[in-house]
Amino acid sequence: MSTWTATVSPVDFSTHKDGATAEPLRAEVYGVERLEAHARATAHDARALPGIQRGKRLFPRLQENGARLNYALREFTNALHAGRTIPPAAEWLLDNYYVVETELNQVQHDLSANYYRELPKLADGPLAGYPRVLLVAYQLIAHTDSRLSEQVIERFVRAFQEITPLSTGEIWAVAIMLRILLIENLRRLMDEVAARYIISRKQGAFVILADNFGTEQYGVGFRKDDIAFLREHLVRLGSGPGGTT
């Protein structure tokens, strides 16, 4: 039985010229023991293609994510210079963009084309053609709500390998894939914040709601704890996915 459920956000790492937004990568949050069981179930479904495969590329999406975050940065910087009030999540981005930029550069440095090509690629499922280790990172991100610790990562990877051993290159790539997905989630969140801000500004009805930016006034759902979620991303991006430098 597939480990993918309707609660997991849609998987789409292709680029979008129209600037389309997508929901953050989130699913039901699991405790450690259930997460380990889920790792084993995920490993059962993680059939890799034979041999070395070029697979689907992640870098175009990563570059687009950087461009979208840079767009949001410029939009909110211009708003501040014009004397307009911006939402708390936008203030967070302005204060911490240097961390995001550093991590984008680090991922591109660490994941060379040859290294990426040698990573085993998934044969089927929503992430078919992408590295198998991306599936490991995706399930970790989705079922922890991006609240990662070194212990949780190690236990998930160890449980996964009880069923499907990973190569040395894949184990090294876990941290890289986690960073890629943290940046992906950040882009999705900031796309939503920027879109709602622009719409509300044009309508002349923008109201700051420090604890819940994006209630019914702005359409469907930005969660009450999304500012905390952004802060968590800063911790993970700034200190590494395992919580250490």
Report on this model:
- This protein has one domain (32-239): Aminoglycoside 3'-phosphotransferase, Chain: A, domain 2.
- Residues 4-10 and 206-225 have low confidence and may be disordered.
- The protein is mainly α and 245 residues long.
- Helices cover 58% and strands 0% of the residues.
- Measured between the Cα atoms of the first and last residue, the distance is 38 Å
Question: Helix segment count?
Answer: 8
Largest sheet: none
Low-confidence stretches: 4-10, 206-225
CATH architectural group: Alpha-Beta Complex
Strand content: under 5%
Let me know the average pLDDT: 78
Q: What tags apply to this protein structure?
A:
mainly alpha; Aminoglycoside 3'-phosphotransferase, Chain: A, domain 2; globular
Short summary:
This protein has helices at 32-45, 59-81, 88-110, 113-118, 132-144, 150-163, 168-202, 226-239. By secondary structure, it is mostly helical.
List the helices and strands and how they pair.
Layout: H1 32-45, H2 59-81, H3 88-110, H4 113-118, H5 132-144, H6 150-163, H7 168-202, H8 226-239
Helix pairs in contact: 1-5, 1-6, 2-3, 2-7, 3-7, 3-8, 5-7, 7-8
